Amino acid sequence: MCHAVPAIVVEVLDGDMARVDLGGAKKTVSTALVGTVETGDYLLVHVGYALGRVDPAEAEATVAALEEIGAGT
Amino acid sequence: MKYVDDFRDARLARAIADEMRREVREDRSYRLMEFCGGHTHAIFRYGVTDLLPPQVRMIHGPGCPVCVLPVGRLDMAIRLAKEEGVTLCTYGDMLRVPGSRKQSLLKARAEGADIRMVASTMDALELARENPEKEVVFFAIGFETTTPPTAVALKQAEAMGLRNFSVFCNHVLTPAAISNILEAPEIRAMEAVEIDGFLGPAHVSVVIGAQPYEYFAEEFAKPVVIAGFEPLDVMQSILMLIRQINDGRAEVENQYTRAVTRAGNETAKAMVAEVFELARAFEWRGLGEVPYSAFRIRDRFAPWDAERKFTIEQRRAAENKACDCPKILRGAAVPTDCKLFGNQCTPQTPLGSCMVSDEGACAAYYKYGRRRAAARPANLEAAE
Lengths: 73, 384
Known about the structure:
- The complex is a heterodimer.
- By secondary structure, chain A is of the alpha+beta class.
- In chain A, 22% of the residues lie in helices and 42% in strands.
- By secondary structure, chain B is of the alpha/beta class.
- Chain B is 38% helix and 18% strand.
- In chain B, the strands form three sheets. In chain B, strands 2-1-7-8-9 form a five-stranded parallel sheet, sandwiched between helices. A four-stranded parallel sheet of chain B has the order 4-3-5-6, with helices on both faces.
- In chain B, helix 1 (10-23) packs parallel to helix 13 (231-247) and helix 8 packs across helix 14.
- Chain B is globular, with a radius of gyration of 21 Å.
- Classes of the chains: A alpha+beta, B alpha/beta.
- Chains A and B meet through strand 4, strand 5 and helix 1 of A and helix 1, helix 2, helix 7, helix 8 and helix 11 of B.
């Protein structure tokens, strides 16, 4: 019920809507809750709405921290 | 899938598990509650429990909207759906939940009620627009993730002057429920639920931010780590909790920095505040009446509030006494403690709400628990 999915914006549409790609599947979602979006932005999509964004730099930092734990063992 | 696969690497999961084993103290236990049903599901689906040191015990919390909705509210929705001219829309999970007298929305539909499963509030609005002769009621449930989409729908209904659309509001709040679990020492003493730390919800926190948890960390001296939903997110967050507990710290830490900020989603929060206000109390399955734990629709949107539009009062509902859901939701029992579990109560024939939703602890135990006896999978890719 509270599980959103990361999706990339492939087309910005009128009326606070966007076409997104969810790992291959395309879907039209509302962006009314996240403000202006651009093609290439990663959004977290749930029940037809983007609820938030994925910050690529922060994602990389988390992956790097995980890799560090992996390298230490 | 980007931002998903990176966080499912089995090698790294084992490395984190090794690190946990090095850092846990032999002389203590780590009782950690994952509040959110999404985490319960992830923990079982990816076999996270099998990787944890024996000192670490995960306690499943009440963060499953379908599970915590009291039977009385579901009964109201069933009665609403049977009203002449009403089309009731809801998210799929609700359809099979057992109400009083063996009723459910699915049964009501078989008996002729117009009940539709929708994937979004936008679909419900569309139904109302296309069917002006029908009264379309959206049976709204969920935590802070599904509340903003309901707020958008109510604002759109107002803007469009769509008078045949209304919302039966059952949106509940995460921080209030965590407080309730922490503030009921008599229940905890009686049922021996001690909690050393919390895994904070992922996508609820995308909306509300990390800030609301600071209160628990301070007031109750319990560490909170906001965790993403992928298995490595969960593993890393558990390691962060172990470290906080070892150091005697009680802070709010954010593992899920790629999506959660301290303030959360300001646009969504503002929209929710415009449409909803706090209800003085709301009944939760398992927790009872919890003060200021749910939203009600503001007066400005009264014409779209199903509870004001239709006369439906909440009646006392009969719970199945043999069902241990209420105790399981407080973390005071595990599904296998329940006599009905796996016997009369299965995902095909659920008697309690915790067996219906994927996020319910019983459904997770039933679906994945039995696999755990088998050999450990070579990687963390879902067992499906």
